[in-house]
Amino acid sequence: MNAYKSDLLRLLDERGYIHQLTDAEGLDALALRQIVPGYVGFDATAPSLHVGSLVQIMMLRRLQQAGHKPIVLMGGGTSKIGDPSFKDEARKLLTPRRSTPTSPRSSGCSSGS
User: Fold this and answer.
1) In angstroms, rounded to a whole number, what is the distance separating the alpha carbons of residues 106 and 76?
2) For residues 102 and 45, what is the distance between their CA atoms, to the nearest angstrom?
3) 96: β partners
4) Sign of dihedral through CA atoms 111, 87, 80, 58?
5) Is 92 left (phi over 0), alpha (psi -120 to 50) or beta?
6) Alpha-carbon torsion 56, 58, 61, 65, what sign?
């Protein structure tokens, strides 16, 4: 499907954000009927954002421009879980001390207390 009816999917398609979609017709119909929320979560323990983060932020902006609801999450559970190096491994829960490695008081490693 490439003749989208909703402003949201037309905008995302025009800007090159769509490669594949699951149930494109359903999402297109939903975006015509109601406001669609979209969210991105960021790991607050990371020292900085990266290019992949910029793409996600730009996509949320396009969502907003089409009249929908962008949501950005940071901290809380995301900070305790962290971002795994390998997507097929389970995430290890971080301790409160390890969840703030960029803090000036913490090196990011447990001292084994």
Assistant:
1) 18
2) 7
3) none
4) positive
5) beta
6) negative
Centroid of chain to Cα 60:
9
pTM: 0.63
Q: How far apart are CA 78 and CA 80, in angstroms?
A: 6
pLDDT at 69 over 90: yes
Q: What are the structure tokens assigned to 110, written together?
A: 């447990």
46 confidence band (pLDDT: 50, 70, 90) = confident
Q: Which helix (H) or strand (E) holds 74?
A: strand 69-74
In terms of phi and psi (left: phi > 0; alpha: psi -120 to 50; beta: otherwise), the region of 21 is beta
Rounded to the nearest 5 percent, the helix, strand and coil shares of the chain are 35, 10, 55
